Amino acid sequence: MRKLSNTNFYSLKDSEDIFLLHKENTGSIKYKDFICDIVRALEYISKYKEDTITIFIEDAYRFIVITVSGFILKKRVNVLNNNSPKYVESIIGSSMVYISDNYKSALNLDEVFESACNDKWFDILKETIIDENININFYTSGSTGYPKLIEKTLKQFEAEASKIVNQFTDDMKDSIFIYTVPHYHSYGFVFAVLVPYMLELRFLDNRINYLETVNNFYEYEKITIVTTPAFLKRIDRSSLKIRAEWHLFSSTGLLDKKVNDLAKYVFGVDVTEIYGSTEAGAMAYRRRSENDLWTRLSVVSLKTDEHGSIECCSGYTGENVWIYVGDVVNMKNENEFELIGREDSIVKIEGKRISVQQIDRQILMDKHFKDSYTIYCKSDKREYIASFIVLSNRDRNAEHMKKYVIEYLKGYFETVVLPKKIYFVDSIPRTEIGKIDRKALDSIMQGN
């Protein structure tokens, strides 16, 4: 199985084989072009003595080139998950080498990729193999909004990708990879970059934003799409004009049954949901029509404490290293579990224990509601929960629908745990990979 860490890049320098497809399918990048661009980047990055480069590169192909070049030069690579100016400034110090395609970059990437290839770097590539123990670290903020650097090695990420390849080989074999998830998040890096690279399959030079773009790849019989619930919520069957044998991965959040049913209606297959985290990697999967329970990946070991809080150990968390996940589950047997919710989503209201995610699941069972997110709130005087809801019909009277929500939920929950505040919104604020934007929710509450 091919890995970045066992690739002889010099051997590819004259290869006419296609490495990546342009996302509009208007052209391609050959392996020989990829190697020449690595050589260009090596010339520039080698001038920095620092052992770490920090990057945010929107263009996926350039991201891959700069990352691989950093590995070859034995530099740690830290990856930012967004490029908003204040966020970047909060992380990047004056002594750090920051490389980006759009904000305060130490390098002009256009200049790098338009430069001549220095032959000395081809000679160096002859003797160079990437060290699998080199670090590639991803910044994540989760629901806190504060940057946190998750440190992992390339070996760990490649071990995770290898497991995905072994588990789902038959589904992915001979397909091309299209992705909607950012490559600068660990899920995108593993599933949209490392997995197709290992399988020597063609993938795109950048992510797509609209389902219509898939129609450009009409000549391919098998297509794998790496995506998120946030993207799948927006799809429409009329947008898909081509036929193919589809395989869909989804992660970064739970896929509502309605959305899974929509995806199955559009593509004709169940979505393969992946349960995992940046720290722990992929832990389990499920396909809704086969099983509502999650099935652990065979290389993964799971355990829970007396409260049901889950921990994970696998070949890619480190030997005998258990990762605290922060979710509460109900283990049905050694291999399967029901996901109850985030540990911090299970709260007590006046002594009554409730998962706010249970409330959301129940709200979404009603046809009047399109999306929902419920949070726990606490002040000096009281504690309560608040629900943010997207109506299926926005023309309905808000006050009437608030009463309807309460009466509907009374059929399933005790009155004391029902939402004390309900906000009807056009959409639940989420980040680009579908994580809840808690700061935006706080702003909505402060504005009402």
What does this structure look like?
- With 448 residues, the chain is α/β, with parallel strands linked by helices.
- The protein folds into 2 domains: 1-153 and 166-247 and 263-272, 3-Layer(aba) Sandwich (Rossmann fold); 350-446, GMP Synthetase, Chain A, domain 3 (2-Layer Sandwich), CATH 3.30.300.30.
- The protein is 28% helix and 26% strand.
- Strands 8-10-11-12-13-14-18-17-16-15 form a 10-stranded mixed beta sheet.
- Helix 1 crosses helix 2 (60-72).
- The longest helix has 19 residues, at 154-172.
- The mean pLDDT is 92.
CATH topology of the largest domain: Rossmann fold
CATH class of the largest domain: Alpha Beta
Count every beta strand, where a strand is a DSSP E run of 2 or more residues: 23
Low-confidence stretches: none
Write the layout of secondary structure elements.
Blueprint: E1 18-21, E2 28-30, H1 31-45, E3 52-56, H2 60-72, E4 76-79, H3 85-91, E5 97-100, H4 109-114, H5 119-126, E6 136-140, E7 148-150, H6 154-172, E8 176-179, H7 186-199, E9 203-204, E10 222-227, H8 229-232, E11 245-250, H9 257-267, E12 271-277, E13 281-286, E14 294-296, E15 301-304, E16 309-313, E17 323-331, E18 336-342, E19 346-349, E20 352-355, H10 356-363, E21 369-378, E22 383-391, H11 398-410, E23 421-424, H12 438-446
Parallel strand pairs: 1-9, 3-4, 3-5, 4-6, 8-10, 10-11, 11-12, 22-23
Antiparallel strand pairs: 1-2, 6-7, 12-13, 13-14, 14-18, 15-16, 16-17, 17-18, 19-20, 21-22
Helix pairs in contact: 1-2, 6-7
GO molecular function: acid-thiol ligase activity
Pfam families: AMP-binding, AMP-binding_C
Domain AMP-dependent synthetase/ligase: 127-292
